[in-house]
């Protein structure tokens, strides 16, 4: 499956233990996302459009309103990086 460079970076950080925190409007729609690495740094590559593409492809999921994490499909889809080998 074709995954863009920005999507790949975000999925890689999520697979390593990061999370995507989101803010909702009063009607329940997500209007702002912030991706945190497991070290607590903010990843700038994670925009609302990247988030929506990852969510549409079911690479990320959230349970009980908690931050979004990589799903099993997302972890399988991410390519190996040098620090994962």
Question: Would you mind describing this structure in some detail?
Answer:
- With 85 residues, this protein is an alpha+beta fold.
- It has one domain.
- Helix content is 31%, strand content 22%.
- The protein has helices at 5-15, 48-56, 72-77, and strands spanning 19-24, 30-36, 42-43, 60-61, 69-70.
- It has a 3-stranded antiparallel β-sheet.
- A hairpin with a 5-residue loop joins strand 2 (30-36) and strand 3 (42-43).
- Helix 1 crosses helix 2.
- The model has no long low-confidence stretch (mean pLDDT 90).
- Belongs to the UPF0386 family.
- InterPro entries: YjhX_toxin.
- It comes from Pelagimonas varians.
- This is UPF0386 protein PEV8663_03387.
What's a quick, concise take on this entry?
With 85 residues, the chain is α+β, with helices and mostly antiparallel strands. It has one domain.
Annotate the secondary structure layout.
Elements: H1 5-15, E1 19-24, E2 30-36, E3 42-43, H2 48-56, E4 60-61, E5 69-70, H3 72-77
Antiparallel strand pairs: 1-2, 2-3, 4-5
Helix pairs in contact: 1-2
How far is it from the N-terminal to the C-terminal residue, by CA?
21 Å
In total, the number of strands is 5
Helix content: 25-40%
Major sheet strand order: 1-2-3
- Helix and strand content put the structural class at alpha+beta
What is the string of SSEs from the N terminus onward?
Answer: HEEEHEEH
Number of structurally distinct domains: 1
Report the major sheet: 3 strands, antiparallel
Overall outline: globular
Low-confidence stretches: none
Radius of gyration (CA) equals 12 Å
Strand % is: 15-25%
- Helix tally equals 3
Mean of pLDDT: 90
């Amino acid at each position: 499956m074709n995954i863009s460079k920005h999507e790949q970076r975000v999925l890689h950080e999520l697979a390593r233990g990061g999370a995507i925190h989101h803010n909702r409007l009063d009607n329940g729609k997500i209007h702002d996302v912030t991706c945190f690495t497991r070290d607590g740094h903010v990843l700038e590559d994670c925009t609302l459009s990247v988030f929506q593409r990852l969510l549409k492809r079911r690479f990320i999921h959230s349970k009980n309103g908690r931050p979004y994490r990589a799903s099993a499909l997302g972890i399988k889809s991410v390519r190996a990086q040098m620090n994962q080998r």
